[in-house]
Structures
1.
Amino acid sequence: MPGSPSRFPITGDPAADGLLNDDPFALVVGMLLDQQVPIEVAFAAPAKLADRLGERFSPAGVAAMAEDELVAACCARPAVHRYPAAMAGRIGALARALVEDHGGRADAVWADVGDGEELRRRLLALPGFGDEKARIFVALLAKRFAVRPSGWEAASAPFSDDQPRSAADVGSRADFERVKAWKRAMRSRGLAKVDPV
């Protein structure tokens, strides 16, 4: 709801957070980009892209774009990702899949889903979503957006627990700092492959 407190205040920019909270396509694109960059950079990228594309920032609009045009939009400074050209290809593929398989609506991926495992399978079918990313997004939808089909905890494990380990656990700026601290600790111990913070 515009003007309401952000359920997912991850970027430090109220406008970028607002877009994530109000636009399911922005949320899915942010999750897609959440690799090899700090999480706040990944989730701020949809706002950059939306500013550059205007009304074309939608699954249908992006799917209709020429590849070189989308690459140019992603590579313009500041770039949307550490690897903007490669990610432009993934964003385009994601948009096309949403148009072809979900009627051009990102939220159709989780609307009327039967259970958590079905939601995880739908996410795995999206370009750029592997098992861990799908599990994190199931947890993010449950924890931040109250999308909680039966069995979501098992479908998103271990990200369904209370350990502040991923974007799914960011409900406040304090939560964000806890997630960053956990990622730093895991990297320093060599216990997990985690993205930079």
2.
Amino acid sequence: MEKKDKMKHIDRIFYPRSIAIIGASEIPGKWGFLLTSNILGGGYEGDVFPVNPKKDKIMGLRAYPNVKDIPFDIDLAIIAIPARLVPNAFRDCVTKGIHAAIVITSGFRETGEEGSRLQDELSSIAEQGDLVFIGPNTMGTVSTFHNLISMGVPLSPMPGGLAVISQSGNIGNQMIDWATHKGFGVGFYAGTGNEAMLKTTDLLEYFGLRKEVKALALYIEGLDDGRNFMDTARRITKDKPVVALKAGATSSGSKAAKSHTGSMAGSFEVFSAMFKQAGIVQVDTPSELVNVAGAMSNLPVPRGNRVGIMTLGGGWGVVTADECEKSGLDLPPLSDEIINDLDKRLPGYWNRTNPIDTVGETDIELHVHILNLLAHWDEVDSIIALGMVGREVYLANSIKYNERVSGKKMDPDVVEALMRKYHNLEMRFFAEAARLQTYTGKPIIAVSLSGGSTETIVRIKEHGSVLFLSTPEQAVNIIKHMYVYRKYLDGLEARASE
């Protein structure tokens, strides 16, 4: 099948006008039940046709004994029936004129010789029938811009600029869930499963060419098209970041990968070299993959490795400075202009260096002023703000302790007014950070020191998003990886100008 036809048919997987669910069920817990309920409950607005020879209706929809019996055109077939029955279902799909499918069913190449034979049969039928498919042995796909959750798990990501490709369904589910809780929008997800036809490379190209996608996250156990993958990645990374986690780094992990999806993991060192040459940012853990890729789908890429730090307390500034140096990030000394400015605003014992220690001064307008100084300073490329936000947790605890000591409940209206005041002060800081980030092109990452917060994206309608993290090392790690991508882009630009 030619590449242009393959790309055209992939649209039917993520933007189908109609779906046939082969193996749809009303029995809770069965894959056919989960898929049907998630597609309907997820807000998909196209036509859904359950296929089950034993039922007349499923979830209020007319059911058909065979996909060939549906008297309407079908864009996408989702298949969740026993492995031995899938080849005939494929033949029925081809007869029906369906050009795209998702095969949820497991029991193929990952199980051994007989499973491999069945999988080869699927590929042969699809190739001859002009049908593209994801799987088998996949958890499914997500297309939030089309309100489509073609999954066996009831996930609820918001639309956004991150696309996720995973060779593990469980890892993929977890990544989407993490991204949702952090506020990272996930536009697309593809669990590639055994990759009998559509491979990680195909999805990388498809998502990479979509304007809605700002960054891609890849979980990879193995590839059998390394050269094609590398060439494709090079085309994509010129325009948008690709972040990857290569699993199977050890012999034990490689064996586990083969039994999982039948994937040949290959040399970890070879993959790392390939990623570097193709401009792919490599990370080590799934949580790091979500943090870095999610940040890169929302924040500008810094122009260099120079970091400006502001902190409510000195200790966190010291820790963050250490992390920056270990990560290859520079902390330029403050200019005389900044020192002279802050000498007029901070107590005489402030540290006069980067990180800027505000020595516990809590005036939000002072924090906003310092943020402006750093953002407009030509000597820094990114900013980390420690402890300027997240104090609402402290206020809530103070109120609780006051009530415990006094034995009286505070007036709810007074409590609400106090909490609203603190919230508005923090939103003032976030709004200015978002404005400056958009205006200067420098990523600004806020870190809460309250311990009660979690990583999230704060969205400011007029200016975009600001990343809000729970630890300084996360902020440094994200900037470090963003700088890796910047160096790659700089290298491309240098070679182009030679």
